[in-house]
Amino acid sequence: MQNEYQHTTSFKVSPLEEFKEAIWKVIETVPDPEIPVITLKDLGVIRDIKVSDDNAIEVIITPTYIGCPAMDVMSMSIEQALTEQGYKNVKITKVLSPAWTTDWMSEEGKKKLKEYGIAPPNQKQIVCTPDLFQQEEVVQCPRCDSYHTKMISRFGSTPCKALYQCNTCHEPFEYFKCH
Amino acid sequence: MNTNSSITTPDFMPQTPNPQPLTLYLLHLADSTLILSHRNSEWCGHAPILEQDIALTNIALDLLGQARNFYQYAAELINQNSNNERSKVPPLEGFREATEDSLAYLRIENEYKNLLLTELPNEDWAHTILRQFYFSTFQFYLFQQLQQNNDEHIVAIAAKAIKEISYHVRWSGEWVVRLGDGTTESHNKMLKAIDTLKNYTGEMFIAADYETAMNIDIDLLKNQWNKKVKQVFEEATLPYSLEDETTFHQTGGKIGTHTEYLGYILTEMQYLQRTYPNSIW
Q: Is B1 a domain residue?
């Protein structure tokens, strides 16, 4: 009798929102595989969490760049984090639309990037036009805060970054380019 | 090789029974991006300076990402289609479900539908830059059209990819100007590249049946592309003579008639999957 009683009280079906909230809490801790100082939530790639009637979980994620090789690792990390916390029936779905933009990055994420030495993305100012030699955005050096910087290359060590150099402290740095 | 604007599709398609124009078009888009991605990746470790080596491999990665999305969608359609047809036709020998990998690794040259431009071997830096500029400019205007397509999958891929393509156009266009308006040597290398590639741009603007069926406005594309190339060439002090209608254009890539170069790419790219079938990472 005792056991049965315990079972029925502990088996409390959470309201859907509470359940989702708990899942968000777990996912919030998953770091970005390439830039581990920020989380996937900071990055803005987790778009939604869906829970079906039988408590199957679907996490909707979107790639930063279309060929981003980190997507598979991201999916696995999310699945692993949830499984470790006892969640079952986890499915990760990748969507392309609406296309990811750096505007979705959290303020917290930007702060963490700067502390890590990567200049965070500016607010999106430039519409994506193919015009050559456009006026480059003013990017602040993450080390000395100077705005006197120059772009070395539009492309960097990962698809989401560009190479810059500070003219004041002369340190090279990476810029998480606005996209 | 012909210049006939009505290009038909060959009837041997072992992995795509009763292909729909949409499937063929997706394969065309995927193949062009995959093959150019492969050519660009051959530069890895060889570009003139490290930053540009990184730039070109980044572009290769973007193209590969596009190819994967197009292949995944094509595979979905092929599997749906073959399920519908399974009751009517006997199963193909060794047939298994199409996947992005089977489409990339198990089709032969004649099934590839990439533009000939993308499979030409790498020569010098000028050649690679010019090819990228031609292709990315074409993609930029094409994907603007695809964003208005009726198919929501295509719209999503196009909207995602065009943000990256605009980087490619700017990067390659800036290099065209830098080399064309640079030293005598770089200018001459650009002239040589223009000459080498001049017979391979026309194919972009000769519609295959599946492109016509997809309502691609190829004349609009051609005008936009010519205008852009002309504008950049003028800035680069390079002669622009591509509008000449008498130029002979190599064609056939869109329907599977390729240059001898594609076979060598596939031999290398498909070796592992053909030697150790079904191996995965």
A: no
Interface check for A95 against chain B (CB to CB < 8 A): the answer is yes
Domain count, chain A: 2
Q: For the CA atoms of A25, A60, A110, A100, what is the dihedral angle to 10 degrees? A: -170
Tens digits of residue pLDDT in B72-126: 999 999 888 766 554 443 434 444 678 898 899 989 999 999 999 999 999 999 9
| Chain B interface includes A96 (CB < 8 A) | yes
Cβ–Cβ of B66/A153 closer than 8 Å?
A: no
Of A42, A67, A100, the position where a domain reaches its end is: A100
Which residues from A are below 8 Å from B66, CB to CB?
66-67
| Residue A124, pLDDT above cutoff 80 | no
| pLDDT number for residue B276 | 87
Whether A139 contacts chain B with CB within 8 A = no
CB-based contact, B163 to chain A, within 8 Å = yes
- Inter-chain touch B156–A69, beta carbons under 8 Å: no
**3-class DSSP state for residue A145?**
coil
Instruction: Kindly state whether residues A54 and A125 are assigned to the same domain.
Output: no
Q: Are A13 and A94 in the same domain?
A: yes
- A31 and A119 share one domain: no
* Contacts A130 to B, Cβ<8 Å: 136-137, 140, 165-166, 169-170, 173, 228
Tell me which chain A residues have a C-beta less than 8 angstroms from the C-beta of B51.
152-153, 155, 163
Tell me, what's the pLDDT at B1? 41
ipTM (interface predicted TM): 0.78
Per-residue pLDDT tens over the stretch A67-123: 888 888 999 999 999 999 999 899 999 999 899 999 899 999 999 999 999 999 887
Q: Is residue A75 located within the same domain as residue A146? A: no
B174 interface with A at CB cutoff 8 Å: yes
CATH of the domain at B242: 1.20.1260.10
Structural domain of A44: 2-100
Residue B248: C-alpha distances to residues A112, B8, B133, B235 (Å): 57, 20, 21, 26
Give yes or no: residues A12 and A54 share one domain: yes
Of B51, B157, B173, the CB nearest to A132: B173
Inter-chain residue contact B159 with A153, CB threshold 8 Å:
no
Residue B121 within a domain: yes
For chain B, what is the domain count?
1
| Percentage of chain B lying above the pLDDT 90 cut | 74
Same domain, A69 and A89: yes
Please judge whether A66 and B160 are an interchain contact, meaning their C-beta atoms are less than 8 angstroms apart: yes
Tens of pLDDT, residues B31-75: 999 999 999 999 999 988 898 999 999 999 999 999 999 999 999
